[in-house]
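Annotated sample (chain length 404).
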Amino acid sequence: MKLICSECGKEVSFGTMARCHVCEGILQPVYSDRTISGLKDIRSGTGINRYRSLMPVSSPIPSLGEGNTPLISSRRIGPALGLKHLYFKHEGCNPSGAFKDRGAALVAALALEAGAKGVVTASSGNAGAATAAYSTVVGLPCLLLLEPGAPPAKLRQSVATGAKVLVVQGVFSHGPKASGDLILELASALNYYPGFIWAPVNPYLLESMKTISYEVVSQVPAFPEVVVSPVGGGDLLTGMWRGYLELKRAGLIPQLPRMVGVQSLRASPLVQAFRKGLKRVETLPFANSTISGINVAFSGEHALQAIRSSDGTVVGVSDEEAFDMQRRLALEEGIWVEPAAVVSVTSLRSLVEQGGIEPQERVVCLLTGAGFKDSKLAETEAQAISAQSPVPFDVNAIVAEVRK
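Output written by the structure step:
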C-alpha cells in the first residue's frame, strides 16, 4: 500500500494525517493489482476483518459483528416508482445501529497499532457511539467532543459504553480546518489516536466503507448500476466508490455504478458545489436542517470527485419530504430508520422524473442508521396508547375495539 495525494500524486509516509502538505489535497491509500486481485478469494469471515488486506492496517480488526448487513428488495416503494430492481442496504443493522461501526472498528485497530493511550473524536452522534463502543472492545478510553443539541439516544450509547463526553461549543461551526486541527492537536497532547472519521483529518478510516461495496456485489443478483447515498462529510460515498473501483480492477464487476449523493436542502454544501461546477466544496455560513447526521456546513471534495468520475449526480431534498418518506418506509417496507438514512430513498422520485434512473436499472439505496438513533416517528401515537385505559380481558371487548 502507498499513501498518495489524490490531487498532485505526491507519495507521503504512512501515518501522515490531515491533507497533503504540498497542495492541500486529500490523501488516499492505494493498493497494488496483486492486492486488489485478492478480492476474488474472499468468501467468508468475521466482521470487516476479512477484508483487512485491502485496508491500511496489519493487526486484526476487532469485531462486534459489524458488516454483513442485509440487502433488502423493495416490495412496494420501488414498484410505485416504476423501479423494477430497488434494494435497500440496511446499515442500521450494525451493532451500534449505523454504518459508522465499520470506521470505528478500523479506528480501534489503528489506535492499538499506533500505541495510542486512547481515542479522541468529535461527533454529532453516530460516529461517537460507534467509536466509544469499539474503543471499549480494545480497552482504550474514548474522548468524545460533542456538538450541543445532539440526539439523546446517540449520547446515551456513548455514555453507556464508557466514553468521556465533553460538550464543546461550536466544535464544528468554526469550520472544517479548525475542527480538524483541534482534534489533531488534542490527539498529540494526550497521545490519543485521532479517530475522526473524515478523510481530510484521518485519511485511513474511510477505507472501511469499501466493505459495503464488497458486500453489495456479493448480495445483489447481478451488480448495482446506481448507488444512492446520504452525504454529510462525504466519506461513505467516497469509500463505496473506491470499493467499486477495486471490484472492477479485480474483474468482479463488468461496469461501475453511478454514484448519487443526497443532502438536505437546508444543509447542502455538496449540492451547491456540484451545481456550480466547483472543484472544492465551499463551507456554508450555517446549516439549519432538522435532520441530525447530515446537518453539515461542509463536505469533502473527494465525494464531489467520486460523483463526477462515476457520471453521477447530487440531489437535494426537503426535511419535510424526508420525514414523510421515513414514515412511508416503515409502513410500506417494514423498515424503521433515522431521518438521515432515508434521504437516499426520498431522492428517488425526482431522479426517476428527471430520467436519472431508468426503470430496469438495479438501484441500491443506503440506509445509514436505525430508527432508534434519532426519531420522533410515531412518538405521539405511542405516548397516547400508553396513556389509554386498558381493554377488559375479554374477546368480545377486544373485537369491539378492533372494529371501532
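Annotation: The longest strand covers residues 258-264.
Annotation: The mean pLDDT is 93.
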